[in-house]
Amino acid sequence: MNRHPGREEQTIHLLKSIELKKGMKALDLGAGEGETVQIMKAFGLNVQGVDLAPRSSEVQQGDFLDLQYAADSMDLCISQCAFFVSRDQKKAVSECWRVLKKGGFLLLSDLDPGNLLEIVKETGFTILCQEDQTALWREYYLEAIWNDSFCCEDHKLLQKEYKGRKIGYTMVVGRKE
Q1: CA-closest candidate to residue 94, choices 126, 68, 122, 135
Q2: What's the confidence (pLDDT) of residue 4?
Q3: Cβ pair 149, 2 in contact under 8 A
Q4: 28-58 per-position pLDDT tens digit
Q5: Residue from 59, 17, 5, 20 nearest 36 by CA
Q6: pTM of this structure
Q7: How far, in Å, are 72, 77, 88, 151 from residue 65 at the CA level?
Q8: 37-41, 146-150, 155-159: which has the minimum mean pLDDT?
Q9: Which GO terms describe its molecular function (predicted)?
Q10: Do 29 and 77 contact (CB within 8 A), yes or no?
Q11: Per residue in 84-100, pLDDT tens?
Q12: Between the CA of residue 83 and those of 5, 29, 40, 46, 147, what are the distances in Å?
């Protein structure tokens, strides 16, 4: 497994942007190998990881565009670098809205074609925090290219689809009011 040395720190930074309480029910969407699930469990959260192709026993197979969880059942949804790959960030954010309880949090860091913050706002979330993390993302991908490893297998398709467009990386923290 190729791990970016700052990935764990980025996850902790995202988690510390809100007040975590032991036992919070949380979903890690696009959980992959379950690294974030393990970090969240260390914070005392009751967390489930969901991914189309789970690569860990910590992660269940599932589609974050069609979550198999009841409405208003979660305290927290987190996703890092996954919604963009689905090609439907709006639907992914809407599914988070559906499963989150009132007062629940969306912690999202993802590739941003320029409208990610608007998608989160239009869905109804109150924005608590927003950071442009494009420089960190570029550093991560430069290392991935150097090591001949990419976080997503669809990178060539995405490169073709977004050729010539400026893509950033944004962290957004929202709350369902």
Answers
A1: 122
A2: 44
A3: yes
A4: 999 999 999 999 999 999 999 999 999 999 9
A5: 59
A6: 0.86
A7: 16, 13, 8, 19
A8: 146-150
A9: methyltransferase activity
A10: yes
A11: 888 899 999 999 999 99
A12: 22, 8, 19, 22, 24
pLDDT digits (tens, 9 = 90+) for 101-136: 999 999 999 989 899 999 999 999 999 999 998 887
DSSP result, 134-161: HHHHHHHHHHHHHTT--S-TTHHHHHHH
Structure tokens that stand for 36 in this block? 């974030």
Q: DSSP label at 126?
A: E
* Residues in contact with 146: Cβ distance below 8 Å, sequence separation at least 6, in sequence order: none
What are the beta bridge partners of residue 19? none
**What whole-number distance in Å separates Cα of residue 71 and Cα of residue 145?**
40
Pairing between strand 100-112 and 25-29? unpaired
With tokens 């941003």, the residue in question is 112
Phi and psi angles of residue 13, each rounded to the nearest 5 degrees, phi first: -60, -45
* Nearest partner of 21 among 58, 75, 73, judged by Cα: 75
For residue 149, what are the CA distances in angstroms to 32, 60, 64, 94, 146? 15, 24, 24, 31, 8
Tokens of 41: 């469990």
